[in-house]
Amino acid sequence: MGTRPLADAVDVNGVDFAFEDVPALHELLADLRAVRPYAIVPFAGAHAVLLLTHELVSAAFKDEETFPAAAIYPLTTGPVLGRTLQCMSGTEHRINRAVASPPFRRNRVARYVEPVLEPLAHELVDRFAERGEADLVAEFTTRYPVLVISRLLGLPVEDESTVRRWAHDLFYFPFEPDAAMTASREFTEYIGPILAERRRRPGDDLVSMLVTESVDGNRLGDEEVFAFLRLLFPAGADTTMLALANTLTALLTHPDQLETVALAPDEHVTWAVWEGLRWEPPVGLLPRLCPRATTWNGIDIPADTPMIFSINAALRDPAVYPDPYRFDITRRETAMLAFGQGPHTCAGTWLALAELTTALSVLLQRLPNLRLQDGTEEHVRITSQVGAALRGPTVLPARWNTA
Ligand code: HEM
């Protein structure tokens, strides 16, 4: 991909960061960061610059000039999701974001918790609570965030399993592009008439908010609404699903801290969620591109070099977080970088936090003495999902006490 090779030697061999699970990832990132704040690693048959410190990752997110989101997203998610916010820059991005983001502001999101998030979490737990055991990934974490989006969009409850299939197929786009393209087309055909109806008779759902909101006289056109709604599945549901599963993994493998949270949820749940996001952010290794040759923070980067913003290395940077490899809910530190930074920072941060804290509170309330099933410790492991960018566990076999 690069027009001339990177001047630095490659630091890692034998694993491709675009497509593979990177074994012992955190140890590898720590070893690399001990040498330099960045590394050169194999990526999609080329070499990428992997940024490893909080300082560099934060600076890179804010530097849209050097690493524009619009240079990569049209190549990666563009074919399946269309021209989303992530493909836009400048005025177009500012206006689209301003029109689409009000429903996700902190004060509006607070209003979703009681009518939508809490009842939904209970509804899912009702299906398995009496059994005393379940795989929380299969029965809760993979279901809840997609259902949240469906309910916020005001979609009919009987369509939820179809929506879940589309969300799943969109997620696996890099490995099964045909299924993802079909899901994208079917979802658009499905949502078209709903959108037309909400334009005629707006309600209080998210689709209505997106079509009625205007900023400086600008409203979203149909294709802009479609692209935003398609983006909600990979950007909003899959990330939250992995974040919840990662926090649960952390707690289930640190039973003393799980007990602390369960005993005083009001005091600890929010901090457990932040610490989960810091310890294992779902978007661990975010790919970008450097379209023009430059020297950036002392790194010579040829034109068209793939970049990887290692959010997970940044959130375990000892310069910012003391004893960073320890999962510790009493740390009382946020992990905002999990949501990116700069102009493309996550539009759904407050919704994600509300979903995560509500889900964790409900699970702890409904599943007393939550713990891993005996003998399953070695199967509970956070690995790369769909290439190295995203991370989460595949199973979480849990038990709890029943009455
Ligand atoms: C824990 C859950 C979540 C995490 C860790 C997360 C993380 C991120 C990150 C890292 C970015 C920046 C990507 C980049 O700069 O290339 C981003 C962007 C975005 N996220 Fe989230 N996200 C989460 C949940 C959500 C939710 C619930 C929504 C629903 C509204 C959402 C909507 C978006 C959108 C629309 C963007 C694109 C913003 C833009 O390009 O201007 N995210 N997210």
Structure description:
The model has no long low-confidence stretch (mean pLDDT 94). α13 packs across α15 (265-279). This protein is an alpha+beta fold. It has one domain: Cytochrome p450. It is built from 17 helices and eleven strands. The protein has helices at 25-35, 54-62, 73-76, 78-81, 90-100, 106-110, 113-126, 136-141, 144-153, 160-171, 177-200, 206-212, 222-252, 255-263, 265-279, 311-314, 349-366, and strands spanning 38-43, 46-51, 133-135, 285-290, 294-296, 299-301, 305-310, 371-372, 382-385, 390-393, 397-399. The strands form four sheets. A four-stranded mixed β-sheet has the order 1-2-7-4. The chain has a three-stranded antiparallel β-sheet with strand order 3-11-8. A two-stranded antiparallel sheet has the order 5-6. Protoporphyrin IX containing FE binds at residues 69, 85-86, 97, 104, 231-232, 235-236, 239-240, 243, 281-283, 286, 338-340, 344, 346-348, 351-352.
